Amino acid sequence: MTVALITAGAVVLLVVAVWLLRRGGGRSTDSIRRDAPTIEVVPPQPTRLGTRLGGLFRRSIDTGFWVDLEDALVAADVGVATVTRVVARVRGLNPVSAEAARRALWSELVASFAETDRTIRTSGEPGIVVVVGVNGSGKTTTIAKYAKSLVDSGTPVLVAAADTFRAAAAEQIVAWGERIGFDVVRGQEGADPASVAFDALSAAQARGHGVLIVDTAGRLHSKQNLMDELGKVVRVLSREAGGVGEILLVLDGSTGQNGIAQARAFTEAVGVTGVAITKLDGTAKGGVAVAVERELGIPVKLIGLGEGEGDLLHFDPARFVDELLGDA
Ligand code: GDP
């Protein structure tokens, strides 16, 4: 009897010990699974555009206020010339509180944007949108998101994969096309991009696509051959279709003032008509939108706020400045 009790007790202890061990082991595996992606995925400082500026407007206007405001706007990449101008104007109004300064600054920044048509110009049969920008800026993703908005509204879309240097770029477009429901024309690797654009235009005209979007190569802007090549794509399309509606430059919003230099190079080569600024979801530097418009006179038309197919917005200066200045 005693032996039986001891044996039963030992078995119970063993079961409990095994259960505890497994539970403990399971927990640590779970926590590794849960924590590891968090550490890998979340950037060091995931900042909302207005976090830093928003904090400023909760304090009083002391001697350091104006300098801090200028610093914060420059850090957000608004551009030194614009910052100096708008802060001087707001200061000249002698606002009685930081909140009053915020309101005046809001008006000044919104007024920095031109009153202009910010729609993507897609008139023509088909409407033609040529998309340019350096690799990694978000061209392909932006094309997919924009194509989705057209497809959703019932416009058949054809995308020309005219970046013939990177097979991966064409494959990426084809995959998006299958998911979203647009057609793709691609050329042989290394083919002349202008001939891919020409073939795509013929296909779009023959098959009745409402809009042709042309993805282009985006190696570094300093390469003269890239600019020559883009110029040729635009010339061929203009000649064959009687005009190109939109030449959209895609800029990575987190690269800040570099974006201005890029924009200038592309504008000189192909006459950019609109800008899409991407990755504004993960940066405090989106002020480059102000600088692009002020310094180059090109309207910002679209903004990218994530990697998903729905993460694209038409640019609205008032909403943008709301975000830039953060919560009051
Ligand atoms: P491309 O080389 O210019 O065609 O650039 P891709 O479209 O391939 O984009 C480069 C990377 O940026 C990819 O990982 C995209 O998912 C990412 N990306 C593009 N747009 C956005 C955006 O608005 N927000 C974020 N967070 N990532 C983006």
How is this structure best described in words?
With 328 residues, the protein is of the alpha/beta class. It is 54% helix and 12% strand. It is built from twelve helices and eight strands. The chain has helices at 2-41, 51-56, 65-75, 80-92, 98-112, 139-152, 167-180, 193-207, 224-241, 258-270, 288-296, 317-325; strands spanning 127-132, 157-161, 183-186, 211-215, 246-252, 274-278, 300-304, 312-314. Strands 3-2-4-1-5-6-7-8 form an eight-stranded mixed beta sheet, sandwiched between helices. Strand 5 (246-252), helix 10 and strand 6 form a beta-alpha-beta unit. The radius of gyration is 27 Å and the shape is elongated. Guanosine-5'-diphosphate is lined by residues 133, 135-141, 218, 278-279, 281-282, 304-307, 311. Residues 133, 135-141, 218, 278-279, 281-282, 304-307, 311 line the site of guanosine-5'-diphosphate.
